[in-house]
Design brief:
alpha+beta, four-stranded antiparallel sheet, three-stranded antiparallel sheet, 3 helices, 38% strand, elongated
Length: 177
């Protein structure tokens, strides 16, 4: 039994949620999101909360049960407060800047990397070594952060590259004479 899936999802104050068949729709101060729940999971609205249950006790239905509830929680909290990821850039000459709607990254390559920011995502550069990615869709925010980090991931010897703000890089000692 899923310990996460058993709990009903409370709809936060200021957010309106509706269930239409397998589609869960949430509207809040930040915007509107929809999520289509898998057919092996049953979703219904009860007493101002959204209840997610498996249709049967098959392995497939039970494995999608907890994930479906988590997705509903993510769309409700996304339209209420949004999500944010912070990236840090370490390295001599490595920097970021906004160029219109595109993110321009100087990462030690012969040319600057220009990243087109997708629709629904906001990228801010408060310092040349810091990037803040925000939006209402948790999956999109994480995907954009991962794509930017992929251009120059952190290396273990000097720690140069792009890393998440809360990430710790295991450092290696290097060669000894």
């Amino acid at each position: 039994m899923s310990r996460i899936g058993k709990k009903p999802v409370e709809v936060p104050q200021g957010v309106t949620a509706s269930v239409d068949g397998q589609t869960v729709t949430a509207k809040g101060p930040k915007g509107e999101l929809k999520f289509v729940v898998n057919d092996s999971v049953l979703v219904k609205m009860e007493d101002g909360a959204i209840k997610v249950d498996p249709r049967d006790q098959s392995k497939g239905a039970r494995s999608k049960w907890g994930m479906s509830r988590t997705m509903v929680v993510n769309i409700l909290s996304g339209v209420k407060g949004g999500f944010e990821k912070k990236l840090e850039i370490n390295g001599v000459g490595y920097r970021a800047a906004m160029q219109g709607k595109n993110l321009q990254l100087a990462l030690g390559y012969s040319h600057d990397v220009v990243y087109e920011v997708p629709e629904g995502i906001t990228v801010a550069v408060p310092k040349p070594t810091e990037i803040v990615i925000s939006g209402i869709d948790k999956q999109k925010v994480g995907q954009v952060a991962a794509e930017i980090r992929k251009y120059r991931g952190p290396e273990p010897y000097k720690g140069k590259g792009i890393k998440y703000a809360n990430e710790t890089i295991f450092r290696k000692e290097g060669k000894k004479k």
